[in-house]
Amino acid sequence: MFYYPLREVSIMTIDLIISRLKNRYPPGKFNSRDPFRQLIATVLSQRTRDEVTDRASGKLFSKYSTAAALADADVSDIEELIREVGFYRIKAPRVKEIARIISNDFEGKVPDDMDTLLLLPGVGRKTANCVLVYGFGRDAIAVDTHVHRISNRLRLVSTKTPEETELALREVLPKKYWRYINELLVRFGQDICRPVGQKCGVCMIGEMCPGRRGE
């Protein structure tokens, strides 16, 4: 068991934080992305910058647009298409195997439940939650490095790993906010609340942040 003491944050404060973030970063439409493409792109995104993932997944899907097509592809061809992403030689056979399982075992349809998604090679909770949120429009909390870091910086949670952060946020956040938190904190983390060089002087939620740096 792990221990994650939670900060006493009022619902009113959480509502204000989310409201200001939504005002600055209007969330995109959910359940508008193809679940299979979301799944493969998220696997490719591991330890890879977003812009690199977008280019590589675009190349891949332009040639192999379905699970069946990707399942039949040569690994060497997949490697060439995704070679920009980190660990592409590991990811190429992995996405091919995922495509084979989806095509053969699920009639080409990505499963829409956490337990089944976690059985796929290379799929952890973050990837599975991204598929549930962005592919199926479900209420789930996808925790990447931005969400983990900022949630702790705000002291909404006190956790050591993204997996712990997901479970802790389930206790802190009203469910109506679950699907939004990933996109909001990722964009916020790239724009203002950076790992280093954060722009506390222009932060729209700065007065609510215990980790705010002095200006």
Q: Supply the CATH superfamily name of the largest domain.
A: Hypothetical protein, domain 2
Catalogue the unreliable spans: 1-7
Number of H/I helices: 11
Cα distance, first to last residue? 39 Å
Number of domains: 2
Q: How much of the polypeptide forms β-strand, as a percent range? A: under 5%
CATH fold annotation of the largest domain = Endonuclease III, domain 1
What's the total number of strands? 0
Which CATH architecture of the largest domain? Orthogonal Bundle
Mean pLDDT, as a whole number? Answer: 91
- N-to-C SSE series? HHHHHHHHHHH
CA radius of gyration is 18 Å
Topology:
Layout: H1 11-24, H2 35-45, H3 50-63, H4 67-71, H5 75-82, H6 88-105, H7 114-117, H8 125-135, H9 145-153, H10 162-172, H11 178-191
Helix pairs in contact: 2-3, 2-6, 2-8, 5-6, 9-10, 9-11
Concise summary:
The protein is an all-alpha fold. It contains eleven helices and no strands.
Main attributes of the structure:
215 residues; mainly alpha; Endonuclease Iii, domain 2; Endonuclease III, domain 1; 2 domains; 0% strand; disordered N terminus
Characterization of this structure:
- This protein is mostly helical and 215 residues long.
- It folds into 2 domains: 11-27 and 141-208, Endonuclease Iii, domain 2 (Orthogonal Bundle); 35-135, Hypothetical protein, domain 2 (Endonuclease III, domain 1, Orthogonal Bundle).
- 55% of the residues lie in helices and 0% in strands.
- It has helices at 11-24, 35-45, 50-63, 67-71, 75-82, 88-105, 114-117, 125-135, 145-153, 162-172, 178-191.
- Residues 1-7 have low confidence and may be disordered.
